[in-house]
Design brief:
With 369 residues, the chain is of the alpha+beta class. Helices cover 20% and strands 21% of the residues. It contains 8 helices and 15 strands. Strands 1-2-3-11-8-13-6-5-4 form a 9-stranded antiparallel beta sheet, with helices on one face. The protein has a 6-stranded antiparallel beta sheet with strand order 10-9-12-7-14-15, covered by helices on one side. Strand 14 and strand 15 form a beta hairpin. The chain is globular, with a radius of gyration of 20 Å.
Length: 369
């Protein structure tokens, strides 16, 4: 970490951008100083959760272990930041992966492919991609399926990448299973009554990154930002209120959950790099086990076919999926009057902070600047 720390102190461009570029480099080899919560130490401490706020039954219905068994951590200097190491029950991550690839990609949800493809071409991304993914080999020359071209999907209140706002007239029903999962995690972290109103799903490959940004478009910042990761690993950078503050680098592995609340809710953050999982296998072992046949009554977790999982597994061999869930409005709060003036039929622009091969798709100024 010595080289990274020295970079953070250099003059010229801001400290966050320098470290983003450092970890973004394909030949970056000095990763020993990146925090790994599987072996916490130093500035890491155990976080106390609200165990009584989530019954073991409700946790199980969401595919989660009892909250008393969760391994949750905080970071000195980042009040309100909580890192939860894979609290999912065996097999349950598979449900959320399948939902992100098969169900949440369906209309009326919005995705980046809608911006340059005819509506009828994006109705069933899963159906158009599954056979191609199942047969996919290791050659980089093979054409990519539509699912592999997917970069983001928005749920609930659909984020507008041009205006950086949510509006009341661009809203579709939020998935009930994902809302239930989010409510349990938020309650365990002390935020009872959390309402999952908007979601942004990001789909990463080994050549993808997420530029430096702050999630500030929600009108209620008193509620947390929830982040769920599945598949391959990544480096996550958590900075300060200003980009001149050098960020802390940490690994995120499959099943890990991050909660940004309080002071940490409006901090700069980024994902400079996606990495193969540390086990050196095609998929992390936490994804090996299938769902048990006896799911609890009222579970939001659904059984899926082995055929469907084979498609998901092939996708995840070179990819990572991240779900970020937000509450946009406080209880009883309304959008400002001007929010209703969005142009009818306006589509969100290409994701301004999602990068591939080091090139921004559009809105270059929003990538890592």
């Amino acid at each position: 970490m010595a080289a990274a720390a020295a970079l953070g102190r250099e003059g010229g461009e801001d400290a966050f951008r320098r470290l983003f570029r450092f970890y973004r480099r394909r030949d970056a080899s000095e990763l020993r100083g990146v925090l790994d919560f599987s072996a916490p130490g130093g500035q890491v401490f155990r976080s106390h959760l609200s165990i009584s706020s989530v019954s073991d039954q409700d946790a199980s219905r969401a595919g989660l272990q009892p909250v008393s068994r969760w391994k949750a951590y905080g970071l000195n200097g980042y009040p309100g930041f909580i890192f939860i190491r894979n609290p999912f029950l065996p097999g349950c991550q598979r449900h959320w992966v399948k939902q992100c690839l098969k169900l949440y990609t369906q209309k009326p949800n919005v995705c980046n492919l809608d911006l340059h493809m005819a509506p009828e071409k994006t109705i069933d991304l899963w159906g158009q991609s599954k056979e191609q993914l199942r047969r996919k080999g290791s050659s980089k020359c093979e054409p990519r399926s539509l699912l592999e071209k997917l970069r983001w999907v928005t749920l609930g209140y659909h984020y507008n990448w041009d205006t950086k706002k949510y509006t009341p007239n661009h809203h579709t029903p939020f998935p009930s299973d994902l809302a239930f999962l989010s409510e349990q995690v938020a309650a365990a972290c002390g935020f009872q009554g959390f309402q999952a109103q908007a979601g942004i799903l990001n789909y990463y490959h080994f050549d993808s990154s997420l530029g430096i940004h702050v999630d500030e478009s929600e009108l209620d910042h008193s509620r947390p930002l929830l982040s769920f990761s599945f598949g391959q690993s990544s480096i996550f950078l958590l900075g300060g209120l200003k980009r001149e503050e050098a960020p802390t680098a940490m690994f995120m592995h499959s099943g890990d959950i991050m909660v940004m609340s309080g002071f940490s809710r409006l901090l700069h953050h980024a994902v400079p790099r996606v990495l193969p999982n540390p086990e050196g296998t095609a998929l992390p072992s936490c994804l090996d086990q299938a769902l048990p046949s006896d799911l609890p009554a009222g579970s939001v977790i659904e059984q899926s076919s082995e055929e469907d999982w084979q498609v998901c597994a092939k996708y995840l061999q070179s990819s990572r999926i991240n779900m970020t869930i937000r509450q946009v409005l406080a209880e009883g709060q309304n959008f400002p009057e001007e929010s209703g003036t969005e142009i009818k039929g306006q589509a969100p622009s290409e994701d301004g902070y999602h990068q591939e091969n080091g090139r921004a798709k559009r809105h270059k100024a929003n990538t890592d600047s």
